[in-house]
Write a structure and sequence with these properties.
heterodimer, A: Peroxisomal Thiolase, Chain A, domain 1, 37% helix, globular, B: 382 residues, alpha/beta, 9-stranded mixed beta sheet, two-stranded antiparallel ribbon, 15 helices
């Protein structure tokens, strides 16, 4: 069958940080309207809306039900949420809405407003993801000591464990994590929408920050940001009319694996090497295949990796096949992953610098689209971006969303 | 649609309040049941759409620990956090895109864990309506019911007749939760008053349950089964928020139905489908649903229920399975409606089978006073 070509024709995002001057609905509306303006479409031209955030942070439920009018209701709405990957899943939902032929122009919006919540955000306060399972497994005799050490750290705890796994696997050191974090802060300084911006940040600056949970320091950890991001998708004819240089969606995939560590019964029967990330390898392979990309290392010009913690930029860039397994830190040392390197990673500053969790994986897609469209401003990579890959990560390290974007439609 | 899509398998659990089963157990039962029904194994499924809610489940990333139970590991997986019927829409989109050929949609809610009525409070505008503390799904529905009664001169007895029809119907459905075979209008009007005019038997029960549906493209469907149920049309729409919409009508349902009819090529819808399975969280809603679906003109829903048109033996049977008043596992409810409609087409509904069903309608909804609606038109072999 003929597959329908779909492109991103407009992007919009809010500034990220502690946004106390707007409420959630105003924040979403700002991103949505910016995207529609950028795409040169009116709300009437939008056929449907896909929306998502990670529920539970601000004490609000199904925001689009009470805030929908501010960005388009009455219209068909689809709410898609998958935790950390929510933004990527919303982006995929928008793509599929148009690719299905049911709609021609679709707005996809993802957001989070951490500061409305008393909870400290995703990096430390996510223990309740697994709480029900933890109590359940205690009934079956699992040690409380082991469970508490794993669960109280939440995202940081799991990621510290994952970072150790990765360091053992690749042979890289904490200094490489410092380098990634410093690079992200420097890149973020060029991105006016980013949260933690630190011009001329050096690995030494990061190394001075205190330990959170070995091997992660304070300087390695993402902030809990407020922010929203939105993109407008259109089918081929409309895209060509509306945008000078649309960012074409060439391939998407979002494979899930069993929850790492806490598999079926938290008894260690599931995946124990958290840096393995099989679901990411498969997602990338499928997405490249759908995109017609045979050699990603040659054909992909830049990537936005979902990296709330620095080892993840190295690890996932390997899993999406941009570097050999365990070798990304060498490319980092050589400067290949800088904005002006041969394989720029996270020129926007990435998730280490900005993490409005529901929106973060959408931002990866949005930033790749900006790079393809040549609209990234000060953090535009100096080379011509023909193909880019956007990555999202979440769950109990077991969800991945991959989106491959390009400057020409798929044939 | 550029590709025909069929339902080839479905299964649901017995809906109950707080059954001796886990969330994972129910999902496994439904998913395995649907695969068995289709006569295929997990390997034949390309993509899985989970339908569950973080708030309902009391944990964020509600699909996280369901990946194994629904057999979605190492498969393209995502989650829709609305009624299950919207999950079917997303699964359809994935098949229509050409990326996938088969899909499974699994919806689950344990209403007993966190009352859906309590959660409805969180879908209110947090800066104004929630602070006042008067509104929730039942009180909002009461406002709607009262407005509807006044405008169209509908009596409490007429609204109670919906409960009688559906709860008596539920008695012959082995999966239903609330079955009252000897119910009458007097008993409904004698049940506990919540918010006038809404009484206990006007409200859907709080159920725990799961449902799964397997979809396939035309080529795959023909390989899998001799009795595919084709999805002929679908339409959805979401209304504005409570205070900004006309509560007297279900306008978004009207738009959704129109789209679904158009896609399915139905010119005179009320004559062209033989049964409807709709999600009526409150009995007065079913009357409003009749009107929005075009089964009668505005304000005439009461005539349909009074004259028995929507009874099992009537011209257009609505909810022969008992509907949402019979069992309401919140996010799985719309999915159950689709499974029940498919059952009717395949002639597998047992004691509540309607004779000669060729086309059926299924409806799902999300939000206060049926704010977001979706309509499916299903059909058997032409």
């Amino acid at each position: 069958m003929m597959k329908r070509n779909v492109a991103i024709i407009g992007c919009g995002q809010t500034k990220h940080g502690r946004l106390r001057d707007v409420n959630t609905s105003e924040m979403i509306a700002e991103a949505a309207w910016k995207a529609m303006e950028d795409a040169n479409v009116t709300p009437d031209e939008v056929d449907a809306i896909v929306v998502g955030n990670m529920q539970g942070f601000g004490g609000i439920y199904d925001t689009e039900l009470w805030a929908g009018e501010l960005f388009g209701a009455p219209k068909p709405f689809l709410r898609i949420t998958t935790g950390g990957t929510t933004g990527g899943s919303v982006a995929h939902g928008g793509y599929y809405s148009v690719a299905s032929g049911l709609y021609d122009v679709v707005l996809a919006v993802a957001f989070e407003k951490h500061s409305d919540s008393k909870e400290r955000g995703a990096s430390t306060g996510l223990a309740h993801v697994a709480m029900a399972n933890i109590f359940h497994t205690m009934q079956h005799g699992a040690s409380i000591k082991w469970l508490v050490s794993l669960a109280t750290g939440a995202a940081t705890g799991v990621s510290a464990f994952q970072a150790s796994c990765y360091m053992y696997r690749s042979g890289c050191g904490v200094k490489h994590l410092d380098m990634v974090a410093a690079k992200s802060r420097r890149n973020a300084a060029k991105n006016e929408y980013a949260h933690l911006r630190w011009p001329n940040c050096t690995p030494e600056d990061i190394a001075k920050t205190e330990w959170i949970s070995y091997p992660l320091r304070f300087g390695h950890v993402c902030p809990a940001s407020d922010g929203a991001s939105a993109v407008v998708y259109a089918e081929e004819e409309i895209a060509k009319k509306k945008a000078e240089r649309p960012a074409w969606i060439k391939g998407v995939a979002a494979y899930a694996d069993e929850p790492n560590l806490m598999g079926e019964n938290s008894q260690g029967t599931a995946i124990t090497d958290l840096s393995e990330q099989l679901q990411c390898i498969i997602s990338a392979r499928e997405a490249y295949q759908r995109a017609g990309i045979k050699n990603p290392r040659k054909e992909i010009d830049m990537a936005e990796i979902y990296q709330p913690f620095p080892h993840q930029e190295l690890m996932f860039s390997e899993r999406v096949d941009l570097f050999d397994d365990g070798k990304a830190w060498i490319a980092l040392e050589e400067g290949q992953t800088e904005i002006d390197g041969s394989m720029p990673l996270d020129p926007s500053g990435g998730v280490i610098s900005t993490n409005a969790i529901g929106s973060s994986a959408m931002q990866r897609v949005l930033e790749c689209a900006l790079q393809v469209m040549g609209k990234a401003g000060k953090h535009q990579v100096p080379k011509d971006v023909k193909n880019a890959v956007a990555h999202g990560w979440g769950g109990a390290t077991n969800f991945t969303t991959i989106t491959v974007l390009g400057d020409s439609p798929r044939r | 649609m550029n590709r025909k899509i069929a339902i080839v398998g479905y299964a649901q659990t017995h809906h109950e309040h707080d059954p001796p089963n886990t969330r994972e157990g129910m999902v496994f039962e439904a998913a395995k049941g649907a695969l068995d029904k289709a006569g295929i194994t997990r390997e034949a499924i390309d993509t899985v759409i989970n339908v569950s809610s973080d708030y309902q489940d009391g944990r964020t990333i509600s699909n996280l620990f369901l990946v194994m139970a629904e057999g979605a590991y190492l498969k393209d997986e995502s989650k829709v956090e609305m009624d299950g019927a919207f999950g079917v829409l997303y699964a359809m989109m994935r098949i229509l895109s050409g990326n996938h050929d088969t899909a499974m949609v699994v919806g689950v809610t344990q209403g007993s864990i966190f009352s859906p009525h309590q959660i409805s409070f969180y879908t209110l505008d947090p800066t104004f309506d929630r602070q006042i503390g008067l509104l929730n799904d039942i009180s909002a529905a009461a406002i709607q019911a009262r407005m509807y009664k006044n405008k169209h001169d509908v009596s409490d007895e007429q609204i109670a007749m919906v409960s009688v029809k559906n709860l008596v119907n539920a008695a012959s459905n082995p999966y239903a939760h609330r079955k009252i075979p000897d119910l009458n209008v007097k008993k409904v009007l004698g049940s506990k008053l919540y918010y006038d005019p809404i009484r206990e038997l006007n409200i859907s029960p709080i159920s725990d349950g799961a449902c799964a549906v397997v979809l396939a493209s035309e080529e795959k469907a023909k390989e899998i089964t001799d009795a595919p149920v084709w999805i002929k049309g679908v339409g959805s729409c979401q209304d504005s928020y409570l205070r900004d919409r006309n509560l007297l009508k279900l306008e978004s349902l009207e738009i959704a139905a129109k789209k679904a009819y158009e896609m399915a090529g139905l010119k005179n819808p009320s004559k062209e489908f033989d049964v409807a399975e709709v999600t009526e969280r409150f009995s007065h809603e079913e009357l409003m649903i009749y009107e929005a679906l075009g089964l009668c003109s505005e304000g005439r829903g009461k005539i349909l229920i009074e004259t028995g048109v929507t009874e099992r033996k009537g011209q257009i049977p609505v909810n022969p399975s008992g509907g949402a008043l019979g069992a309401d596992p919140v996010l799985a409810t719309g999915l159950v409606r689709i499974a029940e409609a498919a059952k009717q087409i395949r002639g597998e509904a047992g004691k509540y089978q309607i004779q000669g069903v060729r086309q059926a309608l299924a409806h799902g909804q999300t939000g206060l006073c049926a704010q977001s609606n979706i309509v499916f038109i299903l059909g058997g072999e032409e």
